[in-house]
């Protein structure tokens, strides 16, 4: 199956994408993760992306589309796109590529959560600086406190999870990503999934939505 996962920053897309990879063995393409990897490696692309990410703005389409295209060309089985597309230009470009590859999007899953809960998820998120594992200080803490219980690396707060940047990211979502709801609804691909409750509960709903 070929799907898009979208929804506000902090709604839990990454958390659910990892579960899909484990359950279904699908390829996950997460543009946010790819950009953070490029930043960590100090590449020219990473440096350019950082200036946008730290302000809570979208990275230019030319940069993100290049990254996504490269990953898409390698896919052989099912896949889920996490955080891509994020505006109409990207969505149209994606549809063109996938049509050429004969792998059209079959469902666009929109995760929904009240803003108050989104802010709680973002402000409590901690990321391993070594392996990228994601924790939450309340809903999913590391068993080793400030260290990652998978690799022992230091847990950090994502620079774009600072309150001012979060405000901007939520506004950018409303302005630029929200129009995708109508885009996928018109194609009959939109499926709304409540992101309330525990990660397990959300995953159960997601699996039902895919059936
Ligand atoms: P990206 O990394 O994609 O960020 P995002 O879309 O803002 O989403 P997040 O990663 O913040 O949240 P999430 O929904 O994945 O939630 P998570 O599972 O981590 O992008 C970052 C930046 O890169 C963008 O702002 C932009 O600048 C750039 N970028 C990326 N893609 C781009 C594109 N296509 N075009 C242009 N620019 C692009 O969960 C959040 C927290 O909640 C975690 O702590 C988690 O443990 C916890 N949690 C998850 N689920 C639950 C639950 N059910 N109950 C309780 N806690 C939960």
Low-confidence spans:
none
Question: What is the CATH architecture descriptor?
Answer: 3-Layer(aba) Sandwich
Order of helices and strands: EHEHHHEHEHEEEHHEH
Counted up, domains total: 1
Radius of gyration in whole Å, from Cα?
16 Å
Percent strand: 15-25%
Which structural class should the secondary elements be placed in?
A: alpha/beta
Largest sheet: 5 strands, parallel
In spatial order, strands of the major sheet run 2-3-1-4-8
Small molecules bound? BIS(adenosine)-5'-pentaphosphate
In a few lines, what is going on in this structure?
The protein has 211 residues and is α/β, with parallel strands linked by helices. Helix content is 48%, strand content 16%.
Give a structural overview.
By secondary structure, the chain is α/β, with parallel strands linked by helices. It has one domain: P-loop containing nucleotide triphosphate hydrolases (Rossmann fold, 3-Layer(aba) Sandwich), CATH 3.40.50.300. Helices cover 48% and strands 16% of the residues. It has nine helices and eight strands. It has helices spanning 13-24, 31-41, 44-53, 61-72, 88-100, 115-123, 163-177, 179-186, 199-210, and strands at 2-6, 27-30, 79-82, 107-112, 125-128, 134-136, 155-156, 190-194. Strands 2-3-1-4-8 form a five-stranded parallel beta sheet, with helices on both faces. A three-stranded antiparallel beta sheet has the order 6-5-7. Helix 1 (13-24) crosses helix 9, helix 2 packs across helix 3 and helix 4 packs parallel to helix 5. The chain is globular, with a radius of gyration of 16 Å. The mean pLDDT is 96. Bound molecules: BIS(adenosine)-5'-pentaphosphate. Residues 9-15, 31-32, 35, 52-53, 56-59, 64, 83-84, 86, 90, 121, 124-125, 134-136, 139-140, 160, 169, 198-199, 202 line the site of BIS(adenosine)-5'-pentaphosphate.
């Amino acid at each position: 199956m070929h799907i898009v996962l979208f929804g506000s920053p902090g709604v839990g897309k990454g958390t659910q994408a990892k579960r899909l990879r484990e359950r279904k063995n699908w390829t996950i393409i997460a543009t946010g993760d790819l950009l953070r990897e490029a930043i960590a490696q100090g590449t020219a692309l990473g440096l350019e992306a950082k200036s946008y990410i730290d302000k809570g703005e979208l990275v230019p389409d030319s940069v993100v589309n290049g990254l996504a295209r490269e990953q898409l060309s390698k896919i052989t089985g099912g896949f889920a796109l996490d955080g891509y597309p994020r505006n109409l230009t990207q969505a149209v470009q994606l549809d063109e590529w996938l049509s050429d590859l004969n792998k059209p999007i079959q469902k666009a899953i929109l995760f929904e959560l009240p803003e108050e809960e989104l802010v709680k998820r973002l402000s409590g998120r901690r990321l391993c600086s070594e392996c990228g594992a994601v924790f939450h200080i309340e809903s999913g803490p590391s068993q080793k406190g400030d260290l990652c219980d998978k690799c022992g690396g230091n847990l950090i707060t994502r620079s774009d999870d600072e309150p001012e940047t979060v405000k901007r990211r939520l506004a950018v979502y409303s302005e630029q990503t929200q129009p995708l709801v109508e885009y996928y609804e018109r194609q009959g691909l939109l499926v709304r999934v409540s992101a309330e409750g525990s990660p397990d509960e959300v995953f159960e709903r997601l699996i039902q939505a895919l059936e």
